[in-house]
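re: that chain from earlier
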Amino acid sequence: MTWLLDVAGDLAADCVERLTWQCRIAGNTQPGAGASSSGGLTGNTNETPGDPLPTSSTKLVGQAFEQNTNLIWSWLMDDEVSTIGIYGMGGVGKTTMMKHIHNKLLERPGISHCVYWVTVSQDFSIGRLQNHIAKCLGLDLSNEHDDLCRAVKLLKQLRKKQKWILILDDLWNTFELHEVGIPEPVDLKCCKLIMTSRSKRVCQWVDRRREIEVKPLLKSEAWNLFREKLGHDITLSPEVERIAMDIARECAGLPLGIITMAGSLRRVDDLHEWRNTLKKLKESKCRDMKDKVYCALFPEDHEIVRKELIDYLIDEGVIERMESRQEAVDEGHRY
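^ sequence. v structure.
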């Protein structure tokens, strides 16, 4: 249970943290998404290659990363695979991996003329998704307020294009493709849909798909990443190194958590501060990762009963002991 219960105090923030929908298109002020071949594109001859998406300078680690990347790349080359689903817990590296694949696709325009990236928030709606896909396509839907009519225009525009890849990052729920205006990739040659989600179920709702789970780092891989982010030029005493290894282990193999914790400790040389950081982490009171890492005791899409969660918070000491059980329960409801 340990620090994973830290989510309880931040449930509200977790629901809205993904507060922007980003779509990176060719020629737009934001980096990223439309790549075109030198031979031109039917109905879209003005498209130019976009800039690569920004990625961390930290070298990606984990034996599974290269294997997963190679497998996804093989599916992109397979005409029999029209949809790819990538799932795994928050902070495990799904988006980072897809950014690298996206950038690699921009270097190989012969594979796909257009690569569109849309980040989908938890606060999903058909209208928002339509707007952001339309922005990728350079299509103006501002004067069209009916979702069905907007879907018709998106469908028509996407059917005009050849060899496109649409990446929907961080999906939380399923939806019908035709309601948005996304043609079934299976109906279009050389067009593909890629989805990332925390939920396996979300990645399984379309036909002719392949899915892959991105798993946490192994213990040794987690320590290597922690040490790299901390800085190999920094010398640790044996006692501090033991604490550092414990901190890396408490991050549960999540690259984002490891990078965040190591970065916060890069300039720390006081043994007491290292020890206190580990103590806070174990006591679920460390806030360094609260805005970036999402962890929970319950499976994805599991219905969480408020009373059950409050009992856990009290029993684990996240809610401190009060004069009466009722006071503690009331504090739980406030959380």
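Residues 296 and 302 are 10 Å apart (CA to CA).
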